[in-house]
Recover the amino acids of this structure.
């Protein structure tokens, strides 16, 4: 069915691991989605297309964009730990938020909770995170203007 | 009456600087409603989801008021019309409210790409990423119904823009031009032809630009987008980071004079590349767009159609 095809297409774009799994095993989607044979074949062809690497890369760039804009110092302080940190965040929050300040605050809260629970991060991260969280919270509050016209 | 399409820009936070430098060259402005509000999401209490971005709205109003006053079109990204989901009615209402607040728009366009799915979707930011659409009867019925609702809400003509993507869907019932042609033929919408998207698709292994245009009903084309991109790890990105490439200009000068209902030629650039592109290059881009618009001048167009375009707000 179309909704499941679209969801599967979105998921293999968001998850290089799922995309690689589909390339290796064309039946990997069958238990997760209700697909016709034609839809399943289309997804296999898309996963094998050279452009899929670019699609997965651009997905990550775009998903990272709000954090890069609003929490630049924190991301820089994470250094080599950024990739695994972001991957873990996206597992917990598979859907990004359209409001960049909301998305940034959500990541900041998630990371702060992780650090409090013992997540190992470079020494500079907690300070940068605290400083930038204050700024992004202020920006978020300022974006909460009066309601739009109905 | 001799008429020609207007020369325009997609509005962004650097547009005011460009207008201060070369405002006389800009006759039309398109703007994305999603950049004029803060969307707190469907979890927000009803009636408290969309909050106006006052500074952006004021900048856009100033750009429209001129001088010279400019025609205006809305250019949305957030409705994701091809999604197999119900239409986001709250966003449709917000789009309608925003266009009313700006005095109405001459036309409203959306993208023929998939951005939302029931449990996810793909974000569209700097480099642009929309997922490809399955062109078949089911998608046609889905999109046609949503276009009718959108048209009623915004109270003006609606256009759909051809998509850019990295991975075409194989084994389709219809090609994208056939799909757009049918939407136009059956009165659902017109076409916004993004020539740079055609280059993106061609460079990444999709349909050659010339083949695509040969299949498209040029009478459906009412707006054209120009833009530039860049290469990244072997792929060509729709990053809106450069002036329009020469190959796109060549196609534009070949094709646009045959688009009898063309109302505007709009250049898109991403504001983070404003300094890199520079005012001088942006001005040259606008000047060349005027040459292109003159090449499209025609005297066989009913005055009413032109008046509709000119009657901006």
């Amino acid at each position: 069915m179309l909704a499941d095809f679209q969801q599967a297409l979105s998921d293999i774009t968001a998850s290089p691991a799922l995309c690689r799994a589909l390339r290796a095993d064309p039946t990997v989607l069958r238990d997760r989605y209700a697909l016709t044979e034609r839809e399943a074949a289309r997804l296999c062809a898309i996963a094998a297309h050279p452009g899929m690497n670019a699609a997965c890369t651009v997905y990550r760039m775009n998903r990272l964009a709000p954090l890069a804009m609003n929490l630049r110092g924190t991301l820089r302080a994470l250094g080599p730990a950024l990739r695994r940190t972001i991957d873990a965040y996206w597992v917990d929050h598979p859907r990004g938020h359209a409001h960049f300040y909301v998305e940034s605050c959500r990541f900041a809260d998630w990371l702060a909770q992780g650090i409090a629970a013992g997540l190992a991060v470079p020494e500079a991260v907690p300070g940068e995170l605290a400083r930038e969280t204050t700024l992004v919270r202020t920006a978020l509050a300022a974006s909460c203007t009066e309601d739009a016209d109905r | 009456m001799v008429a020609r399409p207007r020369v325009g820009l997609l509005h962004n936070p650097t547009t005011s600087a460009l207008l201060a430098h070369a405002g006389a060259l800009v006759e039309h402005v398109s703007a994305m409603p999603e950049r004029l509000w803060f969307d707190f999401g469907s979890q927000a209490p009803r009636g408290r989801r969309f909050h106006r971005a006052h500074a952006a709205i004021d900048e856009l109003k100033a750009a429209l008021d001129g001088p010279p006053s400019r025609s205006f079109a809305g250019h949305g990204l957030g409705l994701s019309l091809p999604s197999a989901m119900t239409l986001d009615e709250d966003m449709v209402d917000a789009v309608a409210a925003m266009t009313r607040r700006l005095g109405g728009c001459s036309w409203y366009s959306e993208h023929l790409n998939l951005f939302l799915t029931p449990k996810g979707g793909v974000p569209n930011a700097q480099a642009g990423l929309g997922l490809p659409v399955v062109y078949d009867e089911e998608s046609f019925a889905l999109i046609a119904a949503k276009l009718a609702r959108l048209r009623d809400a915004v109270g003006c003509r609606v256009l759909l823009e051809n998509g850019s993507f990295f991975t075409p869907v194989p084994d389709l019932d219809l090609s994208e031009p056939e799909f757009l042609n049918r939407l136009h033929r059956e009165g659902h919408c017109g076409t916004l032809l993004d020539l740079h998207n055609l280059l993106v698709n061609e460079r990444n292994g999709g349909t050659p630009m010339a083949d695509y245009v040969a299949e498209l009903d040029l009478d459906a084309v009412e707006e054209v987008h120009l833009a530039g991109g860049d290469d990244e790890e072997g792929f060509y990105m729709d990053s809106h980071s450069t002036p329009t490439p020469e190959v796109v200009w060549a196609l534009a000068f070949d094709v646009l004079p045959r688009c009898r209902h063309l109302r505007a030629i709009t250049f898109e650039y991403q504001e983070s590349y404003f300094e890199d592109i520079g005012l001088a290059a942006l001005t040259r881009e606008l000047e060349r767009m005027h040459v292109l618009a003159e090449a499209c001048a025609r005297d066989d167009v009913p005055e009413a159609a032109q008046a509709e375009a000119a009657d901006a707000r």
In short: The mean pLDDT of chain A is 93.
